[in-house]
Amino acid sequence: MVARINFLVATAILVAIALLLAGFYLVATPVAAIAPPWAGYLMWAWTLLSLALVVSIVARIHGRLGQLYGNARRAPQRSIGFGGQALLYVGHLLLAVSVYRWLGGVSSFQPDVAGVTLLIYAGGIAATLADWRQRAA
């Protein structure tokens, strides 16, 4: 059960980071070059849209993974599954440190750290899915 919750939280964070980075680079940066006062408002709107999409996507993933995870629970977890869960926990830790530093005023938003976090979450999700598919087969 903890693995499933960890997977869903990591998936939500992965989708949110990907959408926010896309908004930062594809929407806010070009608009800031043309109309700087509107870039902040546009990013707020993009953030709200991203959160709505995250909830929708995670709900859909949760519904589709129910049977796969149910079949995978019967078999013992393999090392790839443990590695995937470990990567997800490392992603959570990196995200927590980044948010702590950002809220504490130590550093501003760093897209490169967000990109590394995105890659760690993607690796953990891929390894966890691979383990569930092997155990369900």
Structure description:
The chain is mostly helical and 137 residues long. The chain has one domain. The chain is built from four helices and no strands. The mean pLDDT is 82.
**What is the assembly state of the chains in this entry?**
single chain
How many domains, as an integer? 1
Global outline: elongated
Instruction: Catalogue the unreliable spans.
Output: none
Total number of beta strands: 0
From the alpha-carbon coordinates, what is the Rg to the nearest angstrom?
A: 17 Å
| Helix count, DSSP H or I runs of 4 or more residues | 4
Amino-to-carboxy terminus distance = 20 Å
Largest sheet: none
The computed structural class is mainly alpha
Mean pLDDT score: 82
Range of strand content: under 5%
What order do the SSEs take from the amino end to the carboxyl end, as H and E?
HHHH
Percent helix: over 70%
Short description:
By secondary structure, this protein is mainly alpha-helical. It contains 4 helices and no strands. The protein has one domain (2-136).
Write the layout of secondary structure elements.
Layout: H1 2-34, H2 36-72, H3 79-103, H4 111-136
Q: What keywords describe this structure?
A:
137 residues; mainly alpha
